[in-house]
Design a protein that fits this description.
By secondary structure, this protein is an alpha+beta fold. About 50% of the residues lie in helices and about 10% in strands. It has four domains: about 190 residues, no CATH class; about 140 residues, no CATH class; about 160 residues, C8orf32 fold (Roll), CATH 3.10.620; about 110 residues, no CATH class. InterPro entries: Bact_TGase-like, Papain-like_cys_pep_sf, Transglutaminase-like.
Length: about 750
């Protein structure tokens, strides 16, 4: 291997390392800020250094690989796993073990954690490995390849790294994908052509035009075709390990919490007026409100692992809240506001944590237990009054469709909010009507009035359509959320706790008497705003209320009874209803079609880029068909010989333009003599040349059968000529324009 001049080697390194840096830039957003910058920059620098030294000293491939492994371990501690080193720099035996495990496990962790993933453990190993191995592989290929074509293949490495970055990336990367693709094409295509020795003056214009067409097609054509379709992101398509559909509705356990007198948990640092959230539900099926489990990015059921920091756009007062669990059971973890980080000392508990940044809810897949302690850094948003919200429109939030909603909820909502103008006024009117016209009861019989548990369609019908509205937070929150949704506004039900004391009183013991359910409605510019439709506990039904129902529900128009079969009653006890799982085959089919659609859209720029080559192949196929189907048998035979000459010309082994068929056959035999199967090619072209001369110059006219047999021989000869060259030349011959050019005096002379 002859060493390359320093100038050319510098160009190789600059092009490849520069494009690798561009391809890896979106990982900065995945890890959060500049967290991954040392790992990326260090990996690029070290990988390039190993490749340059290996090429200069002519190391074998095994030595280069060994050098990369040594560098990976020695520098990996400081760049990717500093917690395992001494003073953040000196590697230890645990560093080598962590890096070895991280090389296999980090990829899954980065994909399943919600960005920004942070730098805990060995999360940075993925970024470090991509930079180190990618730069070493690309530069080594460019500097050590024996041929220009082999060196040009190094351009595939930045493309592969770009694909890996896309897989690990987010929906909106820090570097626009269009800009990344354009820069990669503008830099790598000319460089690869130059390294392969194909960048000649006469091809610059054609190559530039081809690149321009590809860029315009990608920048202008792709948005027109794709429209407003979101990018397909792998992390959003992964099914989360926690599926809330495996658990009963948290709201169904409302009365179970009420019966609990012992402390459920203790909270310290709770800001004044802040609420403790347990679960957020936005899906109703006619039986229960539950946490959606469709896995969409905006759903209440999308629980993911989170890194050391959690990004949030919510604005409010920051606080640090400490929790100690006592009698609380289940998988739902109490939270406050929007979390920005979790502090859990037990690694096993930390690995079981799943968080939903759309609702602020959290779960432990292994379940909470007595004695569990954890802290949360939170942002508690300010609750704006309705007068401040004013005429702000409702937020455009995707929510699961409702099912089994009783007609009474729709009719009552329209009647109660008939005078309200803005979304905030509609929500306030429904909240006020329920809180003032209803009565509070946890189920104890009061003056002959019984308050049943549950919040299915039958229970909501009896609450809103009966002579007296009696219930607790479970029924009133469920009813208001349905009424708000029927008015076209986004709403969800929250189960949580509202302790009487705030942060100024130190630790607060939360018991069943603090349980509450409320409704949140989303407004543009204000986010999710809570509403409390539950009447005060002292507002209970009295005997006189039943004896003189002077104003039971004066403004409510009672609807007709629901049609039979409108709501299917649950087969199980309504105290603990279960929802049916959706059709998994439908979910899999929808995911398949989404992936297929994304693949089809992604293929459009590739088809546009390949369109000139497809046109060339189509022109050759049409020419071949026209020759073979000519009505004149003489023209068919002559066309067969022309097909042999054009094949040789595209394979870069042409005969002289002015040669006779016999001379052309001798030239072709000589040019294919050194190729595999050259003797077979020489025999066939000689016979074809003699047969063509006889058909053209003899007195008689060949028959159609003779012309057909001649073309069969032509087909075998063309296949033998094609097989005698390498696969790269075969591919190049299929898209070559050499045989399409106008050659002067192309018709062969007769034999003499």
């Amino acid at each position: 291997m002859t060493p390359r001049p320093a100038g050319r080697a510098a160009v190789d390194v600059a092009c490849l390392v520069g494009t690798l840096g561009l391809a890896l830039a979106p990982l900065l957003e995945v890890y959060g800020g500049l967290t991954a910058l040392p790992a990326l920059a260090g990996g690029l620098l070290l990988g390039t250094a190993v490749a340059v030294v290996g090429a200069a000293r002519r190391w074998s491939a095994i030595v280069v690989v060994a050098a990369v492994v040594v560098v990976y371990v020695l520098a990996g501690g400081a760049l990717a796993a500093p917690s395992t080193t001494v003073a953040g720099v000196v590697p230890t035996p645990s560093t080598a073990v962590a890096l070895a495990r991280g090389a296999a496990s980090t990829w899954k962790q980065v994909l399943t954690l919600q960005p920004p993933v942070g730098s805990d453990g060995t999360l940075l190993v993925a970024a470090y490995l991509l930079a180190l191995v990618g730069s070493c592989l690309a530069v080594s290929i460019a500097l050590r390849a024996r041929t220009g074509a082999a060196a040009a293949s190094a351009a595939l490495v930045p493309v592969a790294v770009t694909i890996a970055t896309i897989i690990l990336g987010t929906r909106r990367p820090i570097v626009d994908p269009v800009l990344t693709g354009v820069l990669l094409a503008v830099v790598l295509l000319p460089w690869a052509s130059w390294r392969a020795g194909l960048l000649r003056a006469r091809r610059v214009v054609a190559t530039g035009a081809l690149v321009a067409v590809a860029v315009v097609a990608g920048v202008v054509g792709a948005p027109v075709v794709v429209g407003a379709t979101d990018r397909l992101v792998v992390r959003d398509e992964l099914v989360p390990p926690f599926d809330p559909r495996d658990y009963p509705s948290p709201l169904s356990a409302f009365r179970e919490f009420v019966k609990e007198d012992a402390p459920l948990f203790t909270v310290t640092g709770l800001p004044e007026g802040a609420r403790v959230r347990l679960a957020t539900m936005d899906r109703y099926d006619g039986v229960v409100w539950n946490v959606a489990g469709d896995g969409s990015a905006e759903a209440s059921g999308e629980f993911r692992r989170v890194g050391s920091e959690i990004d949030t756009t919510v604005r409010g007062d920051g606080a640090h809240v400490e929790f100690t669990v006592d009698q609380l059971a289940g998988v739902w973890l109490p939270t406050v506001g929007q979390a920005t980080s979790f502090d859990i000392a037990d690694p096993a508990v930390s690995s079981a944590l799943r968080y939903n940044d759309a609702t602020g809810g959290a779960v432990l897949t292994g379940g909470v237990h007595d004695g569990l302690e954890y802290g949360i850094d939170v942002v508690v948003p300010r609750v704006p009054p309705v007068t401040e919200i004013g005429s702000a429109p409702a937020s455009d939030v995707a929510q699961p469709p409702l099912a089994g909603v009783p007609d009474v909820a729709t009719v009552t909502a329209a009647d109660v909010a008939r005078d309200a103008g803005s979304p905030a006024q509609i929500s306030e009117a429904l909240e006020t009507w329920l809180a003032e016209e209803g009565f509070f009861s946890h189920g104890v019989q009061v003056s002959g009035t019984e308050s049943l548990s549950g919040h299915g369609a039958d229970r909501i019908t009896s609450l809103l359509g009966g002579d007296l509205m009696v219930g607790d937070g479970e029924q009133y929150a469920a009813a208001m959320a349905l009424m708000v949704r029927e008015m076209g506004l986004p709403a969800r039900v929250v189960l949580g706790f509202v302790p009487e004391r705030g942060a100024g009183d130190g630790p607060v013991e939360v018991t069943g008497k603090d349980v509450q359910a409320w409704v949140e409605v989303a407004f543009q510019g204000y986010g999710w705003v809570p509403f409390d439709p539950t009447p005060p506990p002292e507002q209970t039904p009295q005997e006189e209320d039943q004896e003189k129902p002077s104003e039971p529900n004066p403004q409510v128009v009672q609807p007709p009874p629901p049609p039979p079969g409108a709501v299917t009653p649950p087969d199980e006890d309504t105290e603990q209803p279960q929802t049916d799982d959706p059709d998994e085959q439908e979910d899999a089919g929808a995911l398949f079609w989404r992936i297929a659609r994304a693949a089809g859209i992604a293929a459009i720029p590739l088809l546009l880029l390949a369109s000139p080559l497809l046109v060339i192949i189509a022109i050759k196929a049409r020419r071949r068909r026209r020759r073979r189907r000519s009505l004149d048998p003489v023209a068919r035979v002559a066309g067969g010989w022309d097909e042999v000459l054009d094949t040789a010309r595209d394979l870069r082994r042409p005969a002289r333009p002015m040669a006779t068929r016999k001379e052309s056959a001798l030239a072709l035999a000589a040019s294919f003599a050194d190729a595999p199967g050259g003797a077979l090619v020489a025999t066939r072209v000689g016979a074809l040349a003699r047969s063509a001369d006889h058909a053209v110059f003899s007195a008689g006219e060949p028959s159609g059968a003779h012309a057909t047999a001649y073309w069969a021989d032509v087909q075998q000869t063309v296949e033998a000529m094609t097989r005698s060259v390498g696969w790269r030349r075969r591919v190049r011959a299929r898209v070559s324009t050499a045989s399409l050019k106008n050659h002067r005096n192309r018709r062969p002379k007769g034999s003499s």
